Amino acid sequence: MEHLFLSVLFGLCVFTSTSLADTVPEQVIAIAETFATTIDSENYQAAYMSGSELLRLANDEQILIDRIERNQAMLGKVLHRTLKTIRAVTSPPNFPDGDYLWVCFDARTEHKAKAAEVILVEQRGGIWAVCSYSIRI
After folding, report:
1. Which of 3, 67, 69, 86 is the most exposed place for a label (fewest CB within 10 A)?
2. Considering Cα of 100, then 56, then 137, then 29, what sign does the dihedral take?
3. From CA 65, how far away is CA 99, in angstroms rounded?
């Protein structure tokens, strides 16, 4: 009986995580893509202002812009991005507990064939907004 209970519980957990991925609001993907393409167009201040309050609390505007510009000088602009994964988290590093989604894109830049854009999007009051952006090699 205990094995049956554990099997059912495991099945519910798997079903729940699969369902979450299937029900991710399209707007979250659009928000992440818009933020990334705003950076591609070098409109860093607009990207900064479109982010969440947490993005602005965690990053001084000029320091964030300098970091993005250094990354672009080293890697070049993103030429192509493809959605790879979306993962729900409730306790991401360096941020308060809450409702978040990691949105990860496979990316190709001018100087790097394989990179990853990682964007953390938070939900607060029913509104999704970017609170962290990085490109990794």
Report:
1. 3
2. positive
3. 26
Please provide the distance, in angstroms rounded to a whole number, between the alpha carbons at the two ends of the chain.
48
**Domains of the chain and any CATH numbers:** 25-136 (3.10.450.100)
Mean model confidence pLDDT for the chain: 85
- Strands (DSSP E) found in 34-114: 78-89, 99-109
Query: Cα(56)–Cα(44) distance, rounded to whole angstroms?
Result: 13
**Amino acid sitting at position 68:** I
Q: Supply the pTM of this predicted model.
A: 0.80
Q: Which two tokens stand for residue 47?
A: 């990207």
Reported as a single tens digit per residue, the pLDDT across 9-30 is 333 333 334 444 455 679 999 9
Phi, psi of 122 (to 5 degrees): -110, 150
Can you tell me the distance from the alpha carbon of 50 to that of 31, in angstroms, rounded to the nearest whole number? Answer: 9
